[in-house]
Structure formats: structure tokens, C-alpha cells
Design a protein that fits this description.
The chain has 309 residues and is an alpha/beta fold. The protein has 2 domains: 128 residues, ATPase, nucleotide binding domain (Nucleotidyltransferase, domain 5, 2-Layer Sandwich); 168 residues, ATPase, nucleotide binding domain (Nucleotidyltransferase, domain 5, 2-Layer Sandwich), CATH 3.30.420.40. It is built from 9 helices and 13 strands. α6 crosses α7 and α7 packs across α8. The protein binds zinc ion.
């Protein structure tokens, strides 16, 4: 089976032709989730045709990962990204452009399939995934299948499980105290800027406060960086424990750039070791080694499941 796999992120689309067990070159296309969807898809179609031409093949299916709620292959809703996706006639587009059906899936779900098929959770069929980025994406699988639930939200809203009731930080989803409102990159920048110690912190010299900036500040012994690092790593530890308690995984995969900061990952592991109630033994917490490729492998796998091949 040949799949044109497209991981449509907020600022980049990653694409590859995957045939059987072989993945072709990965193309990266800059995109803007606020631009008209048809404009983005024109660029995606052009890149896709080029990849297929170079691979000398035609696709059996198109598989696309989207940020947002996707249920049984239908885009349901997004949190401000590609807001036209729910009403867009995806299959008409794919048939017209590629003469193939399209299978849509949530981006964290695609990443989780990829980790189970080709990544760090290979050979494991009960897995949860915590993806740290601008927002916090999650997914959970049992018996090798990523959970969807009745409306497509089962397992995917882990970033919006509340972890704090005191400071009532408002999240982009409308809830208060969400994990994402304490540990998404967007929140990190906000938390740093709103702190009275910010003007005197090393973070003040950064254009944007992300995990890298925070880790640098910690290395330099900056007081605000140390305090903020403690806050966000505790928030992520709580999120990890919540996922473990909710989905009973054998393995929890941490994905996204920040999880490669050793102190952050170690802090999440330590928190889970101390607070997760798993009397049968520790849940194995692993770091995704190649998340970009995983999402594309996951898309290929999902297309196979959906088309019965
Ligand atoms: Zn939220």
C-alpha cells in the first residue's frame, strides 16, 4: 500500500510518500494555520504531486494529521487552528487532486500510532503519549488502537485536564487551570512576562520565553528560571500521572522538543515514580526519538487500518 502522508502542523506541513515499509524523502512546507485553508491546500497539493512524481507512484490513500478533534475521519473542531477544516469537503478535494480517498486523524493520535509501529513504543499495545509544544497534545491506545470515544475526544484532551484550582489561569479552550495553561509554550511566555521578577531575569533578554530559554536560565542560575522550571515540570509531572491513572498504559511516551531537556524529562519521571498509583510496577516513561518521522509512519499505518489493507 502507498500512502501520501501529510502532517499539517500550525506552521509547517511535513509530507512523505510511504510505500509498505519504506518512507521516501520528507518534505517540509511552511504553512500558516490562519491563512485560508484552500490556499494552504493548494501548496500542499503541489508538494504532494511533486513527491509522488519523484517516487514514480500514485497513492492508494491520503492520510492527514490535523491539530484538533477528529472523529472517524471527520474534522470536528479545532482550537483556533485551521478553523475552516470542519466544514471543508476533504474527500472531494483528495479525489479531485490525487484520485484517492483521504483519512484524517488528530496529530497526537498519528504520532502515537507511529511510536507503536516504528518508534519507542514498538511492540507495546497499551500506550499514552504526552506531546509538549505550543499546546499540550495527548493520545492513548489500548490493544493497539488509539482511543477515540463517542466524539473523538477520548485520550486527546489530556492537555486540558485541570491541574490547578487556585490561580484559575484561563486556557485557550475556555476551561480554567488546564495543564496546557501551565506548561504549553504559549503559557510559559505568559507566565514569565507576568512575573514581577521578569525585568531583572535573564529571560528578559529573550524575544520569546520557551523551554530552551528556560533551560538556559536554569543553567545560569537565574532565580525566575529556576522557579518557573519547578512550576512547569511539576505541572507536566501531574499531567503524566493523570494520563497514567486515566488510561492504564504500559508505556508513556514523551514527545516534542522540550522532552529532550534532560532535567525536564527526569523531573517528570521522578514525579510519576512518586505519585502514580501503579502497584503492579512503574510505567515505563520513554522519550520519542524521531517524532516527525513517527507521525508520518503513524499516518501510513492509520490509512492501512481504515482502508483494510
Ligand atoms: Zn484547556
Amino acid at each position: 500500500m502507498t500512502t501520501l502522508a501529510i502532517d499539517l502542523g500550525g506552521s509547517r506541513a511535513k509530507m512523505a510518500v510511504v510505500s509498505g515499509e519504506a518512507m521516501g524523502p520528507v518534505a517540509i512546507l511552511p504553512v500558516d494555520h490562519k491563512a485560508p485553508l484552500t490556499q494552504t491546500l493548494t501548496a500542499v497539493a503541489e508538494q504532494g504531486r511533486r513527491l509522488l512524481r519523484e517516487a514514480g507512484t500514485s497513492p492508494d490513500a491520503i492520510a492527514m494529521a490535523l491539530p484538533g478533534i477528529v472523529h472517524r475521519g471527520r474534522a470536528i473542531a479545532s482550537n483556533g487552528k485551521y478553523t475552516e477544516a470542519a466544514a471543508f469537503p476533504w474527500n472531494d478535494w483528495a479525489r479531485r487532486v490525487f484520485s484517492a480517498d483521504i483519512f484524517l486523524i488528530n496529530d497526537a493520535a498519528a504520532a502515537l500510532y507511529g511510536e507503536m509501529v516504528h518508534g519507542v513504543a514498538k511492540g507495546t499495545d497499551a500506550v499514552a503519549l504526552l506531546m509538549i509544544g505550543t499546546g499540550i497534545g495527548t493520545a492513548a491506545a489500548q490493544q493497539g488502537r488509539v482511543l477515540e470515544g463517542r466524539h473523538g475526544t477520548m485520550g486527546m484532551l489530556g492537555g486540558h485536564i485541570a491541574i490547578d484550582m487556585h490561580r484559575k489561569r484561563v486556557c485557550t479552550c475556555g476551561n480554567i487551570g488546564c495543564l496546557e495553561a501551565w506548561a504549553g509554550t504559549w503559557a510559559l511566555d505568559e507566565l514569565a512576562h507576568s512575573d514581577p521578577a521578569f525585568p531583572l531575569s535573564t529571560l528578559a533578554s529573550r524575544q520569546r520565553v520557551d523551554y530552551r530559554a528556560l533551560a538556559d536560565g536554569v543553567t545560569q542560575g537565574d532565580a525566575l528560571s529556576l522557579r518557573l522550571f519547578g512550576t512547569v515540570s511539576t505541572a507536566l509531572g501531574m499531567g503524566a500521572v493523570n494520563l497514567i491513572h486515566a488510561y492504564d498504559p504500559e508505556v508513556l511516551v514523551l514527545s516534542g522538543g522540550p522532552c529532550h531537556i534532560p532535567a525536564l524529562c527526569e523531573s517528570i519521571r521522578r514525579y510519576a515514580r512518586q505519585y502514580a498509583w501503579t502497584p503492579w510496577g512503574q510505567v515505563d516513561i520513554r522519550i520519542a526519538l524521531n517524532p516527525e518521522a513517527s507521525a508520518l509512519w503513524g499516518l501510513h499505518h492509520y490509512a492501512g487500518l481504515r482502508s483494510g489493507q
